[in-house]
Task: structure prediction
Amino acid sequence: MKLTEKPTKRAARSAEGLETTENPDAAQDPRVAMVLDTDTYNEIDDQFALVYAAIAQCLDLKAVYAAPFANKRSSGPADGMEKSYEEILRVLKFLEYPSDGLVYRGSTAFMTSAKEPVDSEAARHLIDLAHAVQPPDRLYVVAIGAITNVASALLLDPSIKERIAVVWLGGHPPYWEHNWEFNLQQDPYAAQVVFDSEVPVVHVPCKNVAEHVKTSVPELKEMLRGTGRIGEYLLQIFTEYVGQDVPRTKEIWDLAAVAWLVDPESLPSKCMPTPVLNVDDQLSWTHDESRHLYRVLMDAKRDKIFQKFVSNLRSHVQKSADTAIE
Ligand SMILES: [Ca+2]
Result:
């Protein structure tokens, strides 16, 4: 294992620059294998991340897991997970992306301690998928909601930490005084499990990182012009969420997590000892230099992120149109 501060391609994507040896079998498919764990219906940003994961040319999307959420758009975690499951299918349908055998239901509850997993179809599928990985490759688990499904899989089978790397969007940077943030607050025990498990972690904080990934209705309208039904849907849900009358920008938070896999340069990062997450009033961090390393993102270059997303989406739409003509 070695720490790669200036990473290149494959090594860039692991938490600690762990994999510097190419797997010869992987040469046939240079794409990065990943799954997406998403509370898709909780807001309007997961949908963009899901589209990006499905269409990015450098990614191989192996599965999509519905994550629980509880806010005004659900009656509780089980309902939130179910609504997310339905939203995943809706987005994939508009994208004309095959969903058979791709989408799985996750946890119907949050964890009640750092020791008890919440079993689910998604957690079991993740375990099976992890065991199919050929080391030294790793399966990238991109999680953009409460991280219950992933933490539960790690508790049910801790051996998967040798075969996966987790990219999680949630909480705030290690220098922030609290972690009052939606994804982390809903299931702090799950976050604790992941940070303590020694699985390679890439942390995408909200403050000062994901919050930079903002756009507005006029800009989004221009960006999504000519991208078909899926473009219309993304614009529709964004517009409905922000309202048309008030000039404002809105975060597409979750795009940051997938964007890091596609283009790590657009989200500068560094490795440091994993902070300890305390389940206290502040959901505070404690720093301990002796802890295992993790990679934490420091910044988000929003222009580069949106440009790359749009260019991948346009290529995908063009390719689909060409295929339809043939
Ligand atoms: Ca989300």
Residues 38-39, 42, 46, 144-145, 254 surround calcium ion (CB under 6 Å). The longest strand covers residues 59-66.
